[in-house]
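Risk mitigation, structural track. In case the binding assays with flavin mononucleotide fail to produce interpretable data, a predicted complex structure has been prepared as a fallback.
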Amino acid sequence: MTRHTTYPTRRCSLDMASVLLVYGTSEGQTEKIAHHVAGVLVGRGHEVELVHGRHLPESLAPARYDAVVVGDSVHGGRHHAYVRRWVEANRDVLASRPSGFFQVSLSAASERSESVAASRALVDEFLEGADWSPDHVGDFGGALVYSQYGPVQRFVLKRIAGREGGDTDTARDYEYTDWGEVTAFAEAVAADLDDVRHT
Ligand SMILES: Cc1cc2nc3c(=O)[nH]c(=O)nc-3n(C[C@H](O)[C@H](O)[C@H](O)COP(=O)(O)O)c2cc1C
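Fallback model:
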Protein backbone atom coordinates (compact mmCIF):
# COMPACT_ATOMS: atom_id res chain seq x y z
CA MET A 1 0.00 0.00 0.00
CA THR A 2 1.32 3.47 -0.89
CA ARG A 3 2.03 5.61 2.15
CA HIS A 4 3.25 8.90 0.82
CA THR A 5 2.96 10.25 -2.70
CA THR A 6 3.63 13.67 -4.15
CA TYR A 7 1.90 14.66 -7.40
CA PRO A 8 3.38 15.89 -9.65
CA THR A 9 6.84 14.72 -8.71
CA ARG A 10 8.35 18.09 -9.54
CA ARG A 11 6.97 21.61 -9.13
CA CYS A 12 6.21 23.00 -12.55
CA SER A 13 4.57 26.35 -11.83
CA LEU A 14 4.98 29.03 -9.18
CA ASP A 15 1.27 29.63 -9.67
CA MET A 16 0.12 26.21 -8.45
CA ALA A 17 -1.53 25.72 -5.08
CA SER A 18 -0.32 22.97 -2.74
CA VAL A 19 -2.79 20.55 -1.21
CA LEU A 20 -2.25 18.15 1.67
CA LEU A 21 -4.48 15.07 1.48
CA VAL A 22 -4.46 12.89 4.60
CA TYR A 23 -6.49 9.69 4.55
CA GLY A 24 -7.37 6.68 6.68
CA THR A 25 -8.01 3.28 5.17
CA SER A 26 -8.22 -0.37 6.20
CA GLU A 27 -8.84 -2.24 2.94
CA GLY A 28 -7.62 0.40 0.48
CA GLN A 29 -10.78 1.93 -1.03
CA THR A 30 -10.28 5.33 0.62
CA GLU A 31 -6.71 5.33 -0.64
CA LYS A 32 -7.99 4.64 -4.15
CA ILE A 33 -10.47 7.50 -3.84
CA ALA A 34 -7.73 9.77 -2.43
CA HIS A 35 -5.60 9.06 -5.52
CA HIS A 36 -8.56 9.93 -7.74
CA VAL A 37 -9.09 13.25 -5.91
CA ALA A 38 -5.36 13.96 -6.23
CA GLY A 39 -5.48 13.18 -9.94
CA VAL A 40 -8.27 15.70 -10.51
CA LEU A 41 -6.44 18.40 -8.53
CA VAL A 42 -3.20 17.78 -10.40
CA GLY A 43 -5.12 17.90 -13.66
CA ARG A 44 -6.22 21.38 -12.61
CA GLY A 45 -2.60 22.43 -12.12
CA HIS A 46 -2.12 21.92 -8.38
CA GLU A 47 0.43 19.97 -6.37
CA VAL A 48 -0.83 17.30 -3.96
CA GLU A 49 0.92 15.59 -1.05
CA LEU A 50 -0.94 12.37 -0.33
CA VAL A 51 -0.23 10.87 3.09
CA HIS A 52 -1.61 7.81 4.90
CA GLY A 53 -2.78 9.04 8.31
CA ARG A 54 -1.18 6.06 10.01
CA HIS A 55 2.24 6.88 8.55
CA LEU A 56 2.51 10.65 8.90
CA PRO A 57 6.11 11.85 8.55
CA GLU A 58 7.30 13.81 11.59
CA SER A 59 8.38 16.60 9.28
CA LEU A 60 4.85 17.11 7.97
CA ALA A 61 3.82 20.76 8.47
CA PRO A 62 0.14 21.18 7.49
CA ALA A 63 0.36 24.98 7.73
CA ARG A 64 2.69 24.95 4.71
CA TYR A 65 -0.14 23.91 2.40
CA ASP A 66 -2.71 26.14 0.76
CA ALA A 67 -5.52 23.64 1.35
CA VAL A 68 -6.13 20.40 3.24
CA VAL A 69 -8.38 17.46 2.37
CA VAL A 70 -9.05 14.56 4.73
CA GLY A 71 -10.65 11.23 3.80
CA ASP A 72 -11.60 8.35 6.08
CA SER A 73 -13.59 5.12 5.97
CA VAL A 74 -16.07 3.68 8.46
CA HIS A 75 -15.69 0.36 10.28
CA GLY A 76 -18.13 -0.70 12.96
CA GLY A 77 -19.72 2.75 12.84
CA ARG A 78 -16.43 4.47 13.64
CA HIS A 79 -13.65 6.38 11.94
CA HIS A 80 -9.99 5.56 12.36
CA ALA A 81 -8.71 6.98 15.65
CA TYR A 82 -5.50 8.18 13.97
CA VAL A 83 -7.50 10.32 11.53
CA ARG A 84 -9.72 11.73 14.26
CA ARG A 85 -6.67 12.58 16.40
CA TRP A 86 -4.91 14.26 13.47
CA VAL A 87 -7.95 16.38 12.61
CA GLU A 88 -8.39 17.43 16.23
CA ALA A 89 -4.70 18.28 16.57
CA ASN A 90 -4.78 20.38 13.39
CA ARG A 91 -8.14 22.08 13.85
CA ASP A 92 -6.70 25.60 13.60
CA VAL A 93 -4.89 24.88 10.34
CA LEU A 94 -8.01 23.28 8.88
CA ALA A 95 -10.12 26.28 9.85
CA SER A 96 -7.74 28.80 8.31
CA ARG A 97 -7.69 27.59 4.68
CA PRO A 98 -9.89 25.85 2.13
CA SER A 99 -10.58 22.32 3.33
CA GLY A 100 -12.59 19.25 2.49
CA PHE A 101 -13.61 16.01 4.15
CA PHE A 102 -14.88 12.83 2.56
CA GLN A 103 -16.15 9.67 4.20
CA VAL A 104 -16.25 6.21 2.64
CA SER A 105 -18.74 3.60 3.80
CA LEU A 106 -21.05 0.87 2.58
CA SER A 107 -24.14 2.54 3.99
CA ALA A 108 -23.59 5.60 1.76
CA ALA A 109 -24.33 3.29 -1.20
CA SER A 110 -27.21 1.43 0.45
CA GLU A 111 -30.62 0.94 -1.16
CA ARG A 112 -32.15 1.88 2.19
CA SER A 113 -32.64 5.61 2.70
CA GLU A 114 -32.25 5.24 6.48
CA SER A 115 -28.77 3.76 5.97
CA VAL A 116 -27.78 6.60 3.66
CA ALA A 117 -29.04 9.04 6.31
CA ALA A 118 -27.08 7.16 8.98
CA SER A 119 -23.92 7.53 6.91
CA ARG A 120 -24.47 11.25 6.58
CA ALA A 121 -25.13 11.44 10.34
CA LEU A 122 -21.73 9.83 10.93
CA VAL A 123 -20.11 12.53 8.79
CA ASP A 124 -21.85 15.24 10.83
CA GLU A 125 -20.94 13.55 14.11
CA PHE A 126 -17.29 13.33 13.09
CA LEU A 127 -17.11 16.97 12.02
CA GLU A 128 -19.00 18.25 15.06
CA GLY A 129 -16.79 16.18 17.36
CA ALA A 130 -13.72 17.68 15.73
CA ASP A 131 -15.24 21.17 15.69
CA TRP A 132 -14.42 21.47 11.97
CA SER A 133 -16.61 22.91 9.20
CA PRO A 134 -14.92 21.99 5.92
CA ASP A 135 -15.85 23.87 2.78
CA HIS A 136 -16.53 20.61 0.94
CA VAL A 137 -17.98 17.36 2.23
CA GLY A 138 -18.29 14.04 0.40
CA ASP A 139 -20.07 10.88 1.54
CA PHE A 140 -19.02 8.15 -0.87
CA GLY A 141 -19.90 4.52 -1.28
CA GLY A 142 -17.00 2.17 -0.60
CA ALA A 143 -16.24 -1.41 -1.58
CA LEU A 144 -16.85 -4.94 -0.44
CA VAL A 145 -13.56 -6.78 -0.71
CA TYR A 146 -14.49 -10.29 0.35
CA SER A 147 -11.11 -11.48 -0.93
CA GLN A 148 -9.39 -9.50 1.85
CA TYR A 149 -11.67 -10.52 4.74
CA GLY A 150 -11.09 -13.38 7.15
CA PRO A 151 -13.92 -15.91 7.61
CA VAL A 152 -15.67 -14.01 10.41
CA GLN A 153 -15.52 -10.65 8.63
CA ARG A 154 -16.71 -12.26 5.41
CA PHE A 155 -19.71 -13.75 7.23
CA VAL A 156 -20.58 -10.45 8.94
CA LEU A 157 -20.14 -8.32 5.81
CA LYS A 158 -22.19 -10.75 3.74
CA ARG A 159 -25.07 -10.41 6.22
CA ILE A 160 -24.79 -6.61 6.23
CA ALA A 161 -24.61 -6.54 2.43
CA GLY A 162 -27.74 -8.68 2.20
CA ARG A 163 -29.58 -6.27 4.48
CA GLU A 164 -28.42 -3.21 2.54
CA GLY A 165 -29.20 -4.56 -0.92
CA GLY A 166 -25.51 -5.17 -1.64
CA ASP A 167 -23.77 -8.17 -3.19
CA THR A 168 -23.50 -11.40 -1.27
CA ASP A 169 -21.53 -13.66 -3.60
CA THR A 170 -18.31 -13.80 -1.62
CA ALA A 171 -16.40 -15.30 -4.53
CA ARG A 172 -15.65 -11.82 -5.84
CA ASP A 173 -15.21 -8.18 -4.77
CA TYR A 174 -17.54 -5.24 -5.45
CA GLU A 175 -17.06 -1.50 -5.75
CA TYR A 176 -19.90 0.93 -5.01
CA THR A 177 -18.00 4.20 -5.34
CA ASP A 178 -19.65 6.70 -7.67
CA TRP A 179 -16.56 8.13 -9.39
CA GLY A 180 -18.61 10.99 -10.85
CA GLU A 181 -19.41 12.12 -7.30
CA VAL A 182 -15.76 11.87 -6.32
CA THR A 183 -14.72 13.92 -9.35
CA ALA A 184 -17.35 16.56 -8.54
CA PHE A 185 -16.02 16.83 -4.97
CA ALA A 186 -12.45 17.22 -6.22
CA GLU A 187 -13.52 19.79 -8.84
CA ALA A 188 -15.22 21.84 -6.11
CA VAL A 189 -12.01 21.84 -4.05
CA ALA A 190 -10.04 22.79 -7.19
CA ALA A 191 -12.39 25.73 -7.84
CA ASP A 192 -11.60 27.08 -4.34
CA LEU A 193 -7.90 26.79 -5.10
CA ASP A 194 -8.29 28.79 -8.29
CA ASP A 195 -9.70 31.55 -6.05
CA VAL A 196 -6.74 31.22 -3.65
CA ARG A 197 -4.27 31.56 -6.52
CA HIS A 198 -5.92 34.57 -8.05
CA THR A 199 -6.51 36.70 -4.95
C1 LIG B 1 -15.02 -5.00 9.53
C2 LIG B 1 -15.76 -4.00 8.71
C3 LIG B 1 -16.69 -3.18 9.32
C4 LIG B 1 -17.42 -2.24 8.56
N1 LIG B 1 -18.33 -1.46 9.19
C5 LIG B 1 -19.07 -0.59 8.45
C6 LIG B 1 -20.06 0.22 9.08
O1 LIG B 1 -20.24 0.21 10.29
N2 LIG B 1 -20.80 1.03 8.29
C7 LIG B 1 -20.62 1.09 6.93
O2 LIG B 1 -21.34 1.82 6.27
N3 LIG B 1 -19.66 0.37 6.31
C8 LIG B 1 -18.89 -0.47 7.04
N4 LIG B 1 -17.92 -1.22 6.44
C9 LIG B 1 -17.68 -1.05 5.01
C10 LIG B 1 -16.47 -0.13 4.74
O3 LIG B 1 -16.73 1.18 5.15
C11 LIG B 1 -16.16 -0.18 3.24
O4 LIG B 1 -15.76 -1.49 2.92
C12 LIG B 1 -15.11 0.82 2.81
O5 LIG B 1 -14.92 0.70 1.42
C13 LIG B 1 -13.79 0.60 3.53
O6 LIG B 1 -12.89 1.57 3.09
P1 LIG B 1 -11.32 1.35 3.24
O7 LIG B 1 -10.98 0.21 2.33
O8 LIG B 1 -10.71 2.62 2.77
O9 LIG B 1 -11.04 1.10 4.67
C14 LIG B 1 -17.19 -2.14 7.16
C15 LIG B 1 -16.23 -2.96 6.56
C16 LIG B 1 -15.52 -3.88 7.32
C17 LIG B 1 -14.50 -4.74 6.64
